[in-house]
Amino acid sequence: MARRFLVVLLFVIFSLVAAAGLIWAVRCGRWDAATTCATLLVGFVAAWVVVWQGYLIKRQLAFSTYLELDKEWNSDEMIDARQNVHEPGAQEWNHSRLEGILEFFEKLASMFKLSADMPFIYQSTLGWYAVRYFLFARRHGQIAYLRSLWKDDLLYADLQALYEFYSSREIYRGKKSQADWEKDILKTENKFWEQERKP
Fold it and tell me: Could you tell me the CA-to-CA distances from 48 to 21, 112, 167 in Å, in that order?
């Protein structure tokens, strides 16, 4: 976000300098300088249009990808996995289903990482689910178990980064500590799993 603001600011400053130079050159009758300033001004405006179009295309692609992920999340296969991944109050987890769900959220988290200036990704329903699945699985040692099983300490690293980003925003908004915020979510865990198991 700060980088985008800096780019916009530089474009505005350079465009204003070129426009001021053009006005000065025309008023003084220096037509060579006026031509140069006009060329610079047109160049800056054209560059701004290209940058803006690139941003819009990036946003459109991110939104399109998000819609595909949302469709996958509500598919019959994913609903079946969600209904059978964990029973409320039980200690057992269906690891193959949990891995499928966490891999799905890893895709969402990777997309967020590539387009972090688009808050709709983490503010969405999928972001809400990703955070809860990660927190509940981590609390019960499932993340650590899967990392040791695959001998990969970076397994679900993008999902963890999304979780940390999401939680930092929620903590700031709710003016709570990390522990209190997590405690409030963990209180709803059994109800969450009951909802996930409903057909």
Answer: 19, 25, 35
What is d(CA 105, CA 8) in angstroms, rounded to the nearest whole number?
Answer: 33
pTM for the complete prediction? Answer: 0.81
Spell out the SS3 assignment of the chain: CHHHHHHHHHHHHHHHHHHHHHHHHHHHCCHHHHHHHHHHHHHHHHHHHHHHHHHHHHHHHHHHHHHHHHHHHCCHHHHHHHHHCECCCCCCECHHHHHHHHHHHHHHHHHHHHCCCCCHHHHCHHHHHHHHHHHHHHHCCHHHHHHHHCCCCCCCHHHHHHHHHHHHHHHHHHCCCHHHHHHHHHCCHHHHHHHHHCC
Contact criterion met (CB below 8 Å) for 62 and 118:
yes
| Greater model confidence, 38 or 137 | 137
Angle between helices 157-174 and 95-114 (to 10 degrees): 70
**Best mean pLDDT range from 16-30, 78-92, 110-124:** 78-92
